């Protein structure tokens, strides 16, 4: 009895796309690493500020650093994955395109799993090496270049620890930065300057403390490193405390 020949498969096989010019894995891999290292340098000041106000133990600070670096790696990987769906010459909806994306994303997965630990270690080396080269053996963490740095750090620290035993009862005046904010039945005021706000159900010393810390944190989140200024102004017959910064065009009501 003669053997029947198997019919040729009509299912197309996945073909490797690694040889295609647009899938230069070594170039993509190098770009991925460079972007991660660039982000370390760009985010260094923000990370140092976070470490400074966290008042954590050394082991906790290392965890914060590692977590921040892992977030950078994951974010940069996602950017590459997203960009792979918009490669030049590929149709929007096409089986071949699906094969290409499948092949490429499998390659990216291998890059991430195989090199992520090495990349994270290099990121740490860059982080600490840059600190030492900028500041010498004694690392000095300075975000602003005057005595207001400690004042601002204390405010943000208050915001982070409002529900803990570390909360500070003393609230410094945001305008003169010398006096202490006080309150009576009618007003919130500074004992060293003319700063004064009307007190009410929606405005008291505790709320002002929270809003000052939040205002500084929000300003920092915008990426601005210059000192914001505070003032009491009456706009549309409404007396309020404002935060302003000419560098980033901030002009907002605090309370």
Automatic annotation (TrEMBL):
Residues 172-253 form the RPA-interacting protein C-terminal domain. It is found in: Nucleus. Pfam families: RPA_interact_C (PF14768), RPA_interact_M (PF14767), RPA_interact_N (PF14766). One of its GO terms (cellular component) is nucleus. Residues 12-53 form the RPA-interacting protein N-terminal domain. The keyword Cell membrane does not apply. The keyword Cell membrane does not apply. Residues 1-26 are annotated as: Disordered. GO terms for molecular function: zinc ion binding. GO terms for biological process: protein import into nucleus. PANTHER family: RPA-INTERACTING PROTEIN, RPA-INTERACTING PROTEIN RPAIN. This is RPA-interacting protein N-terminal domain. It comes from Arabidopsis suecica.
